[in-house]
Amino acid sequence: MSSRFSIKFYGVRGSIPTPLTGPDVTEKLEAALELAEPGDLADEQSRKDFIAKLPVHIKGSIGGNSSCVVAQVDDHLIIFDAGTGIRVLGLELLQREFGKGKGKAHLVFSHTHWDHIMGLPFFGPLFVPGNQFKLCGVHSDLETRLRGQQKFQYFPVSFDVFGSDIQFVDFSNKDSYQIGDARLTWREQYHPGKSFAYRLEHMGRSVIYATDAEYKDQTPEGLKETADFFRGADLVIFDSQYTLVECLEKEDWGHSSTFIGIKLALQAGVRKMAFFHHEPTYTDFRLMKILESSREFKEMIAPFNPLELVLAVEGRQIDLLAGDGISDDQEAEAEQVSN
User: 132-137 and 165-170: which strand pairing?
Assistant: First the structure.
């Protein structure tokens, strides 16, 4: 069996799920029509071709589900956080071995704020007898927290109704954890209630999942410990919920910005950074403008550095073992920033 190491985004919004509204859809339709030429609307095929060429923030959505990211490492499935995006993942998994009670997966939690756990009761594979799940985290009382979410006062279905085999793995007394040939390590971040970043390494490649973190001291010395953890990563999934100004206005709220992420990535020699945990009040158009300004900032301070900057988009998959590079099945769409 050939080795595999890929990342797929199922939930990318921060703080609370944000479904598209009517005005959001209208804005996308208006933007699409402004780009259309008469020949683009001539017949069914030309319309399909026109739509296919549109950037993702116009023809689709960056995504409104809260945090959930999946790593496929050979035949091991590793799920980071259980925001509402995990419901969509569950529907897909039920079409595979998980629908037959033959699935296995690790579910790793950065922390237990609601937006990172609220999808768990809607994760279909947990209800199927025979499936095996290891629920992992650095918070030693993880089981108590997750069970508490499903107390009758808050949710009608008890945690005990899950039919799958569930084991809890406490990382608090470990330095690392092995999943097949992959190695998982972690680092505490500054965030209310303690959030943990994870580094997953396999076949000489590495991905960092670093959501819900604030960086108060942004000098090279202040960022050194984090940069050391990020060092040489092929992909960093980075909490960039706020703009730089908002980071100052919302001190101690526990989030960061794209500009801080860029400084960290450059200091750590990161190859690719995916901005994540998007602010719920930002439209897709606003997010694309932030990406554009972030790329301009990177080119201004480090024009010859090959660091790639992208948005985390629901449905996007990134292959970390694609030859000598990193294959992104929606990279071309992400490049089309302006409308």
Answer: parallel
51 contacts 31 by C-beta, under 8 angstroms: no
Write the pLDDT tens digit of every residue in 116-136: 999 999 999 999 999 999 999
Q: What mean pLDDT is predicted for residues 245-266?
A: 80
What's the helix, strand, coil split of the chain in %, to 5? 35, 25, 40
Hey, is 136 helix, strand or coil? strand
Nearest-Å Rg of the Cα atoms of the chain is 20
Q: Are residues 82 and 43 in the same domain?
A: no
pTM: 0.93
How far apart CA 60 and CA 251 sit, in angstroms, is 33
Alpha helices, H only, the chain: 22-35, 44-53, 56-59, 85-93, 142-149, 224-230, 244-249, 258-268, 284-301, 331-335
Looking at the structure, do residues 155 and 69 belong to the same domain, yes or no? yes
Q: Are residues 144 and 237 in the same domain?
A: yes
